[in-house]
Structures are given as C-alpha cells and as structure tokens.
Amino acid sequence: MNINATLLGQTIMFVMFVWFCMKYIWPPITNAMGERAKKIADGLAAGERGKNELELATKRSVEILHDAKHKAAEIIAQAESRAGQIIDEAKTGAKQESERILTGAKAEIDQEVYRAREALRDQVAALAVAGAEKILRAEVNAAKHAELLKTIQAEL
Amino acid sequence: MSSEALTSSEYIKHHLEHLTWGHLPDGGWGIAHSAEQAKQMGFWSFTVDTVLMSFLLGVVFLFIFKKAAAAATAGVPSGLVNFAEWSVEFVEDSVKGSFSGKNTMIAPLALTVFFWIYLMNWMDLIPVDYVPYLAKAMGVPFFKVVPTTDPNATFGMSIGVFILVLYYSVKIKGLGGFIGELTLQPFGKFGLPANLFLEGVNLISKPISLALRLFGNMYAGEMIFILIALLPFWIQWSLSLPWAIFHILIVTLQAFIFMTLTIVYLDMAHQEHH
Predict the structure, then answer these.
(1) Domain range for residue B129?
(2) Which of B68, B109, B150, B266 could potentially form a cystine with B50 if both were Cys, beta carbons 3.0 to 4.6 Å apart?
(3) Which of A3, A20, A28 sits opposite B151 (nearest CB)?
C-alpha cells in the first residue's frame, strides 16, 4: 500500500486508454448510431410521404373517374344530338327527294296530259275533217280548206 | 482460510500485500519478498500486480468495444454491438445530464473510466484465496488481483482527471481567468489569501476525494472478504454470499460515481462562472 512509480504508469495507461477509446471506439459506434437514426427517420419520412402520395393518388383517381364519367356523358349527349341531326338530315333529304320525285312525276304527268291533249286534238281535228268530209263530200277539198281546218284545230 | 503455518494477522497482511518490483537493498532490481522490503524500495518501484491487472482489464474493455465498433453499422445491430451502443447511450445521457460545455473528449473519457473501473472492481468478486495461492504455486510471493484496492491505480486515474481539469480550466477561462477564479472569490479581492486557501482546498480535494472514495470502498470491501475467509470454511458462504451480492452494487456504484464526478469536475472546468 505504498505510493510509488506505479502512479505514473497508471496515469499514462489511463491517458492511453482514453485516447484509444476516443480515437477508435467512440466515433464508429456513435456514427453508426447516428446513421441508423437517420435511416429510421428517412424510412419514417418515406412512409409518411408514401401515405401522402397514396392519398393524393386516390384523390386524383377519383377526379379522373369523375372527369371520365363527365366526358362519357358529354360524348353520349353529342352522339345523341348527332344522331338526331342525322335523322333530321335524312328526313329533310327524304322529303326533298320525295318532292323532287313528285315534281318530276307531276311534270311527266303534265307532259303526258299535254301530249294526250295534242293527240286528242289531232284526232278530233281529223275526226272533224272526216265528219265534214262525210257531210260535204265533193265540195270540200282538203287542200282548199286546209287553212280553215287549221284554225278550227287551233280553236279546239 | 488460515492455515496452521500462518496466524490470522499474517494471513491478512499477506493478502493485502502487493507484488512490488523495484530496487533491492543488495543493489539489483527484483521482487520484494516482504512488506518491509517493498517499503524500503521507495518511490521508484512498481506494484506489478496492479499494472498487470489494470492493463489486462483495460485491454479487455478496449478489445470488446473495438470489436463492437468494427461491427457497428447502420443496419440491425447484433448482440455485442447492441450492448456497446447501449453503454455508449448510457454514458452519453450521463454526459448530457451533467456536462453543459461542448467537448467531444468527455464522453469517450467517461466510457473508458466507467468500464475500466467496473472491470477492475469486479476482480474483487474473485474468491480472495484463489489468486494469491495460485501465484504462490507459481513462485510469486504476493498477488493482489483488484487494481482499485491499490491507491496507485486510483490516484493514477484521478491525477489524469486532475490534469484535464487544469488543462481545460486554463484553456476555457485563460490563465488569468483561472487564477482569478482561485483568488477573487468568494470574498472579493480583499480576501485574497482566504480565497486562495478555500479555492485551493476545493481544487486539490477533487482528485483526492475521487481517488480515495474508490480506493476506500474497494479496499474495505476486500478487507471484509478476507475477514470472512478467516471463518471456518463451512460457514463462510453465509456471510460471503450476501456480501458478494451487496458488493455487486458497490462495484457498479463506485464505477458510476467515479465517472459522474469526472464529468462534473470537467464541467466545472468548462464553466466561466460557478
């Protein structure tokens, strides 16, 4: 139990141990702990971010769905109106066509009537001439009375 | 247990004697074979058992923690790394609790102090006869296995702490500031001698109390183990077991107190006013 030079040796040993601990033990351990804490914090932040993103994505998907529904409705409405338009167009087209056909038919009928009337007129004139011929027989010369006959014909 | 050849007092003296290496009266260097011889060696001698055991235990601490430090990653920690990190955190919390300055040396210092003293104190729980008799069988006259029962070891550490206290006092406050702190309070500049005396005692008492507290506790603890060992062998357990269990508390507590006081003294050295 004497105080001796061991004292100095122990102090030197103490300083060496502290130095070694400070240099080679403390920094790696605290660094690893700090890094792990950072990693965990990052992980938690990433999780939080992921959650937020999921929320945003859900919101966006709802919006997109809503938009799509809206657009679909619009397209259907457009299609319906277009269909109506097409039907209207077809109707008017058909009406015009039918009118055209009708007018064509009418014109043809008129023509036919005219032609029949002309034919009839000729025939009536001839009949009249034939009747007059029969009545007048010799006295009537067709060439002589041609002019007369023509006026009758025109009157008819 | 005392043998027939030894009286109780011889037995106790033997168990309390350090293995001392120094200058022998006949001129050469060697091991002292009696307490008187060891005393005659004077200051320039070494207690070999203290140096050996404290060095060994210090290396054990550094080896274990170096291994943990090498294995420490940001990934999932293994058992040893976990233990090292828990220790580091425990010391860091203690430092944060009592150290207000900013110094990266304090925490590693506290960790080393705690584990080194802890391991040295643990040697006290080795049955008191084992190591001395083993040494005797190998031809070594004395061997005290607990370095902290040697005042050389405890004073060695407390002087190390004291040097740091002085260094940081001067570094933080400046030489003038430190001298001012020693001389200008608590009574102002007209009470200078009284101030110097009070503050001087205050300063010097730090390493002395630090060393003697640890030494006293461990020495007394060992003494009681030795006294218990004087009883008949079949009854020893009834006292040594409770004392050993109680001693586990003392071992830890003394290491913790030494560490905490080291931190507190260094904190005082870092404070401008106290």
Answers:
(1) 3-270
(2) B150
(3) A3
Overall pTM surpassing 0.80 (yes/no): no
AA letter at B165: V
Q: What is the DSSP letter of B50?
A: H
The pLDDT value given to residue A92:
93
Going by pLDDT thresholds of 50, 70 and 90, the confidence category of residue A142 is low
CA distance B126 to B140: 18
Residues of B serving a catalytic function are 209, 213, 217
For residues B94 and B110, the answer to whether their CB atoms sit within 8 Å is yes
H/E run at residue A72: helix A26-136
pLDDT averaged over every residue in chain B: 88
Which residue carries 């790394």 as its tokens? B81
CB pair distance less than 8 Å for A3 and B81: no
Residue with tokens 């001012």: B180
Give me A76's structure tokens. 């259907």
Contacts of B140 (CB under 8 A, 6+ apart): B19, B31
CA–CA distance, B1 with B45 (Å, rounded to integer): 30
The total domain count for chain B is 1
Would you call B57 an interface residue with chain A, using a CB distance cutoff of 8 Å? Answer: no
Closest CA to B146 of B175, B125, B120: B120
pLDDT digits (tens, 9 = 90+) for A8-43: 999 999 999 999 999 999 999 999 999 999 999 999
Q: Which residue has the tokens 């027989």?
A: A137
CA angle in degrees (0–180, nearest 5) for B259-B19-A16 = 35
The residue whose two tokens read 């009157």 is A155
Q: What is the per-residue DSSP string for B155-207?
A: HHHHHHHHHHHHHHHHHHHHHHHHHHHHHSTTT-GGGHHHHHHHHHHHHHHHH
Q: Closest to B38 (Cβ–Cβ): which among A2, A13, A33?
A: A2
